[in-house]
Every structure is written in structure tokens, then in C-alpha cells.
Amino acid sequence: MGRSIFFSLMVICLLAAACYHDAPKTDFDMSRVLPQDSMIVLLTDLQLVDGAVSMKARTGKPVREISLAYTDLILQKHHVEKETFDESIRYYSYYAEKMDAIYEGVINNLTVMQSRINQAPAKE
Fold first, then answer.
1. Is the whole-model pTM more than 0.85?
2. Measured distance between the N- and C-terminal CA atoms of the chain, rounded to whole angstroms
3. What is the distance between the alpha carbons of residues 16 and 3, in angstroms, rounded to a whole number?
4. Could you give the count of Cα atoms lying within 13 Å of 1 in the half-sphere of its Cβ?
5. Residue 34 contacts residue 80 (beta carbons within 8 Å)
6. Which residues have C-beta within 8 Å of that of residue 97, sequence separation ≥ 6?
7. Is 14 exposed, middle or buried (0-12, 13-18, 19+ CB in 10 A)?
8. How much is the pLDDT for 24?
9. How far apart are CA 120 and CA 20, in angstroms?
10. Domain locations in the chain?
11. Cα(122)–Cα(41) distance, rounded to whole angstroms?
12. Residue 114 CA, distance from chain mean position
């Protein structure tokens, strides 16, 4: 699972970097853009959901349906409207260096979680 998450994160970072522009864009609805620390927490949870959905896909369940349901639950957990999330992704994708910083935080969060799992005593 760890490799697929890191691979997914790297692909997203590369896509975000490809969207970089030199001139500032002013048509973002900044009232709907989440702060970077909030995006890190939200995207960490969404990456965990992505892993869970990948596991469910192996059981033959409809991946898209499961993914949308989990995404909605994560947005509700963080009290974030879909429009706010979409505008935040659009904004941070435009500014690649900000998106890179966010995904560094996400990777750090996931690494800490993986360490805790690896250090937990085995259940018998």
C-alpha cells in the first residue's frame, strides 16, 4: 500500500507542477480556498481513502461509487463543501510551489502513520 500512495502523490505533484503559471491569476474565489495546513490534513485523509478504495476494488465492488462516497464523508468530517475543495485544488494547482509544500506535508503525515503502524505490537 505504501508504494502506491507515494506513487499517487508523486503523479499529483508532477501534474500540479505542470499547471504552474508565471503571471498571478486573480479570478480565484479566495473565500473558498482552504489554508495550506487544512489542505494537508484533508488530502492526507483522502489519500488514506484512496488506499481503502484500492483495497475494495480487489473485491469487485464499484470503485467510482465507493470513492465518491468516501470523499463525501471526508469532506463532511472536515466541514468542507465540495465547491470549496474544488476551488482550493484549482488554486493550489495553479501555484505549484504551494501544492508541492502541501504534498510534502501529506507525505510526512502518511510516513508518520506508517511508522506508528510498523511500531505497534502485533496482535495475536
1. no
2. 22
3. 20
4. 16
5. yes
6. 20
7. exposed
8. 52
9. 41
10. 2-22+31-116
11. 27
12. 16
